[in-house]
TrEMBL record:
<dbReference type="InterPro" id="IPR015421">
    <property type="entry name" value="PyrdxlP-dep_Trfase_major"/>
</dbReference>
<keyword id="KW-0808">Transferase</keyword>
<keyword id="KW-0032">Aminotransferase</keyword>
<dbReference type="GO" id="GO:0004058">
    <property type="term" value="F:aromatic-L-amino-acid decarboxylase activity"/>
</dbReference>
<dbReference type="GO" id="GO:0019752">
    <property type="term" value="P:carboxylic acid metabolic process"/>
</dbReference>
<dbReference type="GO" id="GO:0030170">
    <property type="term" value="F:pyridoxal phosphate binding"/>
</dbReference>
<dbReference type="GO" id="GO:0005737">
    <property type="term" value="C:cytoplasm"/>
</dbReference>
<dbReference type="InterPro" id="IPR015424">
    <property type="entry name" value="PyrdxlP-dep_Trfase"/>
</dbReference>
<keyword id="KW-0663">Pyridoxal phosphate</keyword>
<keyword id="KW-0456">Lyase</keyword>
<dbReference type="InterPro" id="IPR002129">
    <property type="entry name" value="PyrdxlP-dep_de-COase"/>
</dbReference>
<comment type="similarity">
    <text>Belongs to the group II decarboxylase family.</text>
</comment>
<keyword id="KW-0210">Decarboxylase</keyword>
<dbReference type="Pfam" id="PF00282">
    <property type="entry name" value="Pyridoxal_deC"/>
</dbReference>
<dbReference type="GO" id="GO:0008483">
    <property type="term" value="F:transaminase activity"/>
</dbReference>
<protein>
    <submittedName>
        <fullName>Aspartate aminotransferase family protein</fullName>
    </submittedName>
</protein>
<feature type="modified residue" description="N6-(pyridoxal phosphate)lysine">
    <location>
        <position position="334"/>
    </location>
</feature>
Length: 543
């Protein structure tokens, strides 16, 4: 074996090379385990992020003249690991998963095979897994697996972009050649993810033609406002091509009424003689809860708590209509406990893809040859990673029930956190409904949430409360290596008495997706908040 070959896995499956590779894996796992501490968020100490931190890296980085040994390489690798946040029970900031073991194995096999998911000749495993998970998940959400199509792509945001492009191309097939008409419009809730904003820019539809619909108090889209704004667009000569229905808003888990949206669109299409308006269900956050679509709440075989069942039943009402959407997405790297990036974009009718497919003469490398029967020339990517393999292994290892259990646990921990928070603080309000995320807002004195929602406060008052919360977030953020809470500057918009401009509301976020975040941990989260609230209020008195 020559020196270069030593840098690679074996060609013949010999034991010596296998043992060497295994040895490296073992070293890495051991060193990472040594850094783990369940009472801390980080693996070892957090680096001191001085102002010149990245600048110093820029100065010192250089490709070595001669390659270093694997031991030194691993040492350098471990330097990257040190201080990294580890997703144990101390991380309650966002839907950020600790990848489960089956998904890690799937990912490893993906890398070892290094298939190119662009076509099956170069990546048979990924093609097989992609077709499999597309069928599995189509069956869960109620798409006909013989008619649906799916592919993994660059996140929930990629799914939004792909769907908007599909919507435009479906209605204006010539736009691929001629560019898009200037009077196309898309609609979304004012609380939807910024994915559509970027997609409006990138497709050329233009952000000015993205209409933001008001949200209700439960953070779902206000359907009357949708009708009003759509009518206005049509009246002015615009053509609605696309509605984004958010199934679980990123910060508050608000769920749009997909069924209601569809009824409205049917009516408007008929009255104005329009082509069907495309609906993408942005289920990046909430999609996993379709796993309860067939759950038997009457017999409750997994014995979920009553309060948990009540929420799940409410979800079922919405998620059972997922199959109304022209497309949707499963972001497994959010609530599905898999590594980045594992997003499956699902399309109800695969015939729609013909509007995006490249002409055979334009793809000289793939597809136009006599062999291979799966090639994804309709994706925006050319080479693609086979991330469907980790989705596949996770679905196998968890099964429907495993996912139901972990998804129910998110709710249980949140219910417990909400109860404890209300019990321990007199100056806090919970500002969203029970879900995998709890948003909460503190007040310098009395709780004024109701008055805020009713628009009874002044700009100054709301701004002061926002500042009080932002300062508190800064304070607890200093100790984010102990417990890491999330926050958002704009949970929603509220009216004020002295201006027509609605103001954003600053809140804290408690988001649990770690399997190690259990009900038993809740008292720790509360104590952490209490200690810091004391410090916060004392510092205010001093000023
Ligand atoms: C997270 C999120 C996205 C973006 O998904 P990525 O996987 O991060 O690209 C889009 N929409 C919603 C509702 C989200 O919560």
């Amino acid at each position: 074996m020559n020196k270069l070959q030593q840098l690679f896995p074996s060609a013949d499956g010999n034991q010596q090379q296998r043992d060497e590779l295994l040895g490296h894996f073992k070293t890495i796992l051991t060193k990472m385990d040594e850094l783990k501490d369940p009472s801390k968020l980080t693996l070892g100490e957090m680096p001191n992020y001085t102002e010149d931190y990245y600048n110093r890296i820029i100065q010192s980085a250089l490709v070595p003249e001669k390659g270093v040994s694997m031991d030194v390489t691993i040492e350098k690798l471990m330097d990257l690991v040190k201080g990294h946040r580890f997703l144990n029970s101390n991380y309650v900031a966002n839907a950020t998963p600790l990848p489960n073991i089956a998904s890690i194995l799937g990912n490893l096999v993906m890398v070892l095979l290094n298939g190119n998911n662009l076509w099956d000749v170069d990546g048979s495993a990924a093609a097989n897994a992609e077709v499999r998970v597309t069928s599995m998940l189509s069956k869960i959400i109620g798409y006909d697996p013989n008619e649906s199509a799916g592919y993994t792509t660059w996140g929930g945001q990629g799914a939004v972009f792909n769907s908007l492009r599909l919507a435009i191309a479906r209605q204006f097939p010539e736009s691929n050649k001629e560019g898009i008409p200037s009077n196309l419009y898309c609609f979304c809730s004012e609380l939807s993810h910024f994915s559509l904003y970027k997609s409006a820019e990138a497709t050329g539809i233009g952000v000015n033609n993205m209409v933001r619909v008001k949200a209700n108090d439960d953070h779902s889209m206000d359907l009357n406002d949708l009708i009003e704004k759509m009518e206005e667009v049509i009246e002015n000569g615009g053509i609605p091509v696309y509605v984004l229905a958010t199934m679980g808003t990123t910060d508050t888990f608000g769920i749009d009424d997909l069924y209601g949206i569809k009824q409205i669109l049917k009516d408007i299409e008929q009255r104005h003689n329009l082509e069907p308006v495309y609906i993408h269900a942005d289920s990046a956050m909430g999609g996993m809860y379709t796993f309860f679509n067939d759950y038997d709440f009457k017999n409750n075989p997994l014995q979920f708590e009553e309060e948990v069942c009540a929420v799940l039943k409410q979800y079922q009402v919405h998620f059972q209509h997922m199959n109304i959407a022209d497309s949707m997405v499963f972001d497994f790297h959010k609530l599905g406990q898999t590594p980045y990036i594992t997003s499956l974009f699902l399309i109800k009718d695969k015939a729609d893809l013909k509007y995006l497919d490249l002409d055979a003469s334009e793809t000289p490398y793939v597809g136009s040859r006599g062999y291979g029967s799966y090639h994804t020339s309709y994706t925006l990517e050319c080479s693609r990673m086979g991330s469907s393999i980790s989705i596949y292994t996770s679905l196998l290892a968890f099964g429907l029930e495993g996912y139901q259990q972990i998804l129910a646990n998110y709710l249980l921990v949140n219910i417990s956190f909400r109860n404890a928070l209300k019990k321990e603080f007199s100056n806090v309000e919970l500002t969203n409904g029970v879900s995998p995320v709890t948003t909460f807002r503190f007040y310098p004195e009395n709780v004024k949430w109701r008055a805020e929602l009713d628009g009874n406060l002044t700009t100054t008052e709301v701004t002061e409360i926002n500042q009080y919360n932002e300062d508190f977030a800064e304070l607890i953020g200093l100790e984010r290596d102990v417990i890491f809470f999330g926050n958002t500057k704009k949970q929603r918009l509220i009216s004020v008495t002295d201006s027509s401009k609605r103001l954003p509301v600053y809140v804290h976020k408690f988001y649990t997706t770690s399997p190690y975040s259990t009900v038993e941990e809740v008292h720790r989260y509360i104590s952490f908040l209490k200690e810091h609230m004391d410090i916060h209020n004392k510092s205010l008195v001093l000023i």
